[in-house]
Design goal:
The chain is an alpha/beta fold. The protein contains 10 helices and 8 strands.
Length: 289
């Protein structure tokens, strides 16, 4: 395992100053950051469409890392990781498993947000011994209603945001109410707290590959979720335009050990960031129970 930061490094106190490291996966370097205690089952964070290391809310990461070892990473071809981005969720899941094993880990918990939640479901079903528990946020099952519309919705909102000189997440991740837009501004400000050693933004080529993978997932026949026997915590905002909130209710109902967090009010795709205090408290309670 190769680390791009010089070893040994002191445990970083916050995500803002966690060094970016790398590990070789089949000859390709995968970028990652980790913080929190060294003992216990590590929690791997699986990111959303177009996201890189710097798109994780530092409040969520820091609060989780107060009690758990937390690892964020860029999958193949994303951000600072090498290689080219696959255009299926299944291939992304395989790469994630290879990354986890390259770190020398034999059991993990997973927190998958949106597209990361699709990947987490595949890993949990295919690698039952590797995954102890999982948290699925702002996500849905294969073939879930509205998931195949993510591409058109994303492009529309990116154009709208460009015309209004705003970040697209104002529209894609948060409601248009005063409360929702205040949460958007606060979240986007938190993402800028890290000033040194920031990640590369996603390339257009990788973004397109991810959009293709999401569309395929949305058009796949519904899968047998009874294969996922691990405990699963499911969370979402009540007004998610990207992955409609009914998908979360469907996951909770169909997963044998699914547990639903009541949908966050006046919140959308970024519900776990808008309600970071409540979400982290519930997530830690679930992981430690």
């Amino acid at each position: 395992m190769s680390a791009s930061s010089s070893s040994p490094t002191p445990t970083p106190s916050s995500y803002k100053n966690a060094p970016t490291r790398s590990v070789s996966v089949q000859g390709i370097n995968f970028a990652y950051r980790q913080l929190g205690p060294d003992d216990g089952v590590p929690l791997i964070l699986l990111n959303h469409l177009s996201a890189v290391l710097d798109n994780w809310d530092p409040r969520v990461v820091d609060k989780l890392a107060a009690r758990r070892r937390v690892i964020t990473y860029d999958n193949r071809g994303v951000g600072a990781s090498g290689g080219s981005t696959p255009d299926t969720i299944e291939a992304m899941a395989r790469d994630t498993v290879l990354f986890i094993r390259a770190l020398g880990l034999d059991q993990v918990d997973l927190l998958g947000l949106s597209m990361g939640g699709f990947i987490a479901q595949v890993i949990a079903a295919q690698e039952p011994a590797l995954v102890r528990k999982l948290i699925l946020a702002g996500t849905g099952p294969a073939g879930g209603p509205g998931i195949d519309k993510v591409t058109s919705l994303t492009v529309q909102d990116m154009l709208k945001a460009t015309l209004r000189r705003k970040d697209p997440k104002h529209y894609l991740f948060f409601t248009q109410t005063e409360r929702g837009q205040r949460a958007a501004r606060e979240f986007l400000a938190r993402l800028k707290e890290r000033t040194d050693d920031r990640d590369k933004t996603i390339s257009v080529q990788s973004f397109r590959a991810q959009l293709k993978a999401i569309k395929r997932w949305g058009r796949t026949a519904p899968q047998d979720l009874s294969r996922i026997q691990q405990p699963v915590l499911v969370a979402n905002g009540e007004s998610n335009r990207m992955v409609p909130s009914e998908n979360t209710l469907d996951l909770a109902a169909r997963l044998p050990r699914g547990e639903l967090v009541p949908l966050y009010p006046d919140a959308g795709h970024g519900g776990i960031f808008q309600y970071h205090d409540a979400f982290v408290a519930r997530a830690l309670e679930f992981l430690e129970s």
